[in-house]
Amino acid sequence: MRILGIETSCDETAVSVVKATGDFPNATYTILGDALFSQVDIHREYGGVFPAVAKREHAKTLVTMLGHALSEAGLQKAHETTLSEAVQAALSDILSHESGLAEELITFLEKYARPNVDLIAVTSGPGLEPALWVGINFARALARVWDIPVVPVNHMEGHVLSSLFDGSTIPNLTFPSIALLISGGHTELALMHDWTTYELVGQTRDDAVGEAFDKVARMLGLPYPGGPEISRLAREAREANLPPFATLPRPMIDSGDADFSFSGLKTAVKYALKERTLPHDERCRIARDFEDAVVDVLYKKTLWAIEEYGAANLILGGGVSANDRIREVFTEKFATYQVSLNLYLPNKKLTTDNSIMIALTGHARSREALDETGLATLRADGNRSLTHDS
Ligand code: KG4
Ligand code: ZN
Predict the structure, then answer these.
(1) Domain boundaries, the chain
(2) Which residues are in the CB-under-5-Å shell of ion ligand 2?
(3) 47: which of 78, 100, 114, 339 is 20 to 30 A away, CA to CA?
(4) Which residues line ligand 1 (CB under 6 A)?
(5) Band of pLDDT at residue 389, cut at 50, 70 and 90
(6) Residue 82 and residue 119 in contact, taking contact as beta carbons nearer than 8 Å
(7) CB of 183 within 8 A of CB of 161?
């Protein structure tokens, strides 16, 4: 089965073609084509992601990404056709809110033949709703012309599979398993009862961990996205063995549950800075203090959940799982914790939002593919939860 994955939930516009041989989870996967455009340089100017800008950029870039993915997969075959007026009108209607996209797509579709693809997987949430809609409507338009079913994918489930994917297979997990999902919008501990049944056992009560990284970075005068910047400064402080700058709290670390809170930590950094512009060394020190506090809390909460639910596998996923310190500490501590605990970290290339993870999840959920009637009712769900999906 060939799956076309589409991801537009935040600031990455991604399209890929993944070939699955066999049934999930025992399939072998081949990435036939993968195209991704990161809007990060555009959003950096604004200091964060603006939904309206993200939406506009997705609309501008999707057809190009589709072309790249299909041509890399050897599935872009030139074949001049003329779409009937009825089809053109249907596409214009489906894409009426995505400026310029219908025209560009019609030109593309009149130039190339229907590719040999069996399923379209598109992110339907969580994420920024205006951004999600572009991907959904694009998928609906393709489904209309090519007559291919569409499966709406949960972005967070995508991060879980992204972490498990070794480049060609998904391991045979035993359940229950625990997933720690950390990104710009989420901080969640999810208990997996099986491949499609998730239970949210803990989450942040205020800021997401990525959001805290981004806000603290801004306080330190560092550009967006702040996570990698903080991480770079913190590494400098560690390598130079600089002393701590401030004693920062570990919010809720002993609360005896799996919930998180990061806003107090962010405020503690703000007070420590006293609105001064600090010299580089001091910024490195406080970046490390902040990162250490985050790692301590993430580790302790995750350990709590593993013990509470007797999990045999720990899956770390989401944009923040690119963080070297978190990866290091988790690897070190969980390796010595229990021989029988398997830790799955995403390949660095697949930590950020991508469409390969959406295609993989689409394969896992291929039974949930929608026909034309179902597709007409498909909505973007900015708050789509892992828990209510199955
Ligand atoms: O999953 P993701 O790409 O997008 C969302 O779905 O939110 O995560 C983006 C978040 C940003 O907050 C970014 O600062 C953070 O991941 N991030 C990091 C690192 N790389 C990205 N945070 C800490 N350390 C990193 N190395
Ligand atoms: Zn994400």
Answers:
(1) 2-159+353-384, 173-346
(2) 183, 353
(3) 100
(4) 10, 183-185, 210, 213-214, 225-228, 231, 318-320, 322-323, 352-353
(5) low
(6) no
(7) no
